[in-house]
């Protein structure tokens, strides 16, 4: 844990005037309201760390090679700005950040892997709204649509992304898929189903799928339902579902189960059927696609999937693997949605000019070049320089997201843990083993915390 200066400061008008002067060019969130948290337009959250000392502390969840890549992406900024950025990683981030904030030991900036914990601390008045320290309008213009909405509380946004993950990707073995007559662009899920039916007619299951993940078995199924909710009913219904403004067994959600059921439970659609899906580890799901002959062809999974592909495939990604976006549904939401996630930067020291400068850089389209070049990182900005990406596959992922109409965070990560990492997982396993759509959704609904 980084050392901190134990000097408390009152949130005074003098500090507010100073920061307002520093940020005179900053545009305000057009949806701002005075009801959001303790840090209103005339107030600034404060931690106990010294202001203006050219030291900024950051707390995040990622370590190892990702930490090295993150720090490499900060090096040039540190040199030019003279600011020493001290990053601390903790794999128990969700608990540690709350503990530190409660104890009065908040970092200057924290990088939240999900919006839930960020919103909780924003509600407690511990986080500075980004529209008072960043150019909200500029961010909204360059970011993939949906990110800033994910950090909104009472009309104010409290975090901005510095890294993106994308899940709405369909992977295929390039040579084998082409030989089988597979297409690579689809106007709709119905168009995709027509092509996969043709493949199935030749004797091979089109879809590869594995849900095995030890105690977390079933999470892959939750991603599928989330994808379908976005396509069947759109982002507004998705948001109502996530926040429990509509029940889990609402007819609009049951439609998503039905659509997924057509794909996952259709005769011959998935290699090995239900038993194989549950018993196959998610990281091994696509391995049969690279056998000769292939046992299946398509896998819907996030950008992290490259790390689980066979080693010889990883060594030659651009030639051996292709991807396309999981398409929209005819008769459903009219746009192209993308499901994913990201790391969100939030500020706990609202009137420190050094922290503000680091926030500006972290959340800009200039951040991340060195990280992108080593792989495993995607910018949330449509305007990021794609030449930094190490291969054509990653560039294509970035293009898929930048062309999307809306982005939404993984729903199970936003739901109460009793549901999101509890009954949603376990009931999806029962669903795959034969439980009906309504039985599954009602069981999950009944598990939702009452308060």
From TrEMBL:
* InterPro entries listed in its UniProt record: Bact_solute-bd_prot1
Leader sequence range is 1-25
- Supply the PROSITE patterns for this chain: PROKAR_LIPOPROTEIN
Q: Does the keyword Signal apply?
A: yes
Keyword set, alphabetical order: Signal, Transport
Q: Is Signal given among the entry's keywords?
A: yes
Cited PANTHER family: ARABINOSE-BINDING PROTEIN-RELATED, OSMOPROTECTIVE COMPOUNDS-BINDING PROTEIN GGTB
Which family is annotated? Belongs to the bacterial solute-binding protein 1 family.
Q: What is this protein called?
A: Extracellular solute-binding protein family 1
Q: What is the lineage of its organism?
A: Bacteria, Bacillati, Actinomycetota, Actinomycetes, Micrococcales
């Amino acid at each position: 844990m980084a050392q901190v200066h134990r000097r408390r400061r009152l949130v005074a008008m003098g500090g507010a005037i100073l920061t307002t002067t520093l940020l005179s060019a900053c545009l305000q969130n057009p949806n701002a309201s005075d009801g959001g948290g303790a840090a209103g337009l005339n107030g600034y959250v404060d931690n106990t760390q010294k202001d203006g000392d050219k030291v900024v502390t950051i707390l995040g969840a990622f370590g190892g090679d990702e930490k090295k890549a993150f720090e490499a992406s900060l090096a040039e900024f540190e040199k030019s700005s003279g600011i020493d950025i001290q990053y601390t990683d903790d794999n128990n981030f969700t608990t540690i950040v709350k503990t530190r904030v409660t104890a009065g030991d908040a970092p200057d900036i924290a990088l939240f892997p999900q919006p839930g914990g960020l919103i909780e601390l924003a509600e407690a008045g511990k986080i500075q709204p980004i529209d008072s320290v960043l150019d909200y309008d500029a961010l909204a213009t360059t970011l993939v649509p949906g990110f800033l909405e994910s950090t909104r509380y009472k009309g104010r946004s409290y975090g901005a992304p510095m890294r993106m993950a994308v899940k709405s990707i369909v992977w295929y073995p390039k040579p084998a898929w082409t030989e089988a007559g597979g297409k690579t662009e689809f106007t709709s899920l119905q168009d995709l189903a027509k092509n996969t039916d043709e493949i199935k007619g030749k004797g091979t299951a089109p879809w590869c799928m594995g849900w095995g993940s030890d105690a977390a078995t079933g999470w892959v199924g939750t991603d599928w339902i989330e994808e379908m909710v976005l396509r069947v009913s759109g982002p507004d219904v998705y948001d109502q579902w996530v926040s429990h403004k509509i029940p889990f067994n609402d007819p609009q959600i049951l439609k998503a189960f039905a659509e997924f059921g057509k794909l996952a439970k259709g005769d011959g659609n998935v290699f090995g059927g239900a038993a194989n899906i549950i018993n196959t580890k998610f990281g091994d799901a696509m391995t049969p696609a690279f056998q000769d002959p292939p046992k299946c062809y398509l896998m819907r999974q996030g950008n992290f999937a490259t790390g689980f592909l066979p080693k010889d495939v990883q060594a030659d990604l651009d030639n051996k693997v292709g991807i396309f976006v999981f398409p929209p549904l005819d008769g459903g939401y009219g746009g192209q949605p993308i499901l994913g996630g990201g790391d969100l930067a939030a500020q706990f020291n609202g009137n420190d000019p050094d922290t503000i400068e680091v926030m500006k850089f972290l959340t800009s389209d200039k951040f991340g070049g060195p990280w992108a070049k080593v792989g495993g990182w995607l910018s949330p900005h449509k305007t990021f320089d794609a030449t930094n990406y190490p291969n054509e596959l990653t560039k294509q992922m970035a293009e898929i997201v930048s062309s999307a109409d809306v982005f939404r965070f993984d729903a199970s990560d936003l739901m109460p843990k009793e549901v999101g990492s509890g009954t949603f997982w376990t009931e999806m396993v029962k669903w795959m083993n034969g439980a009906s759509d309504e039985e599954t959704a009602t069981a999950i609904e009944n598990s939702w915390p009452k308060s």
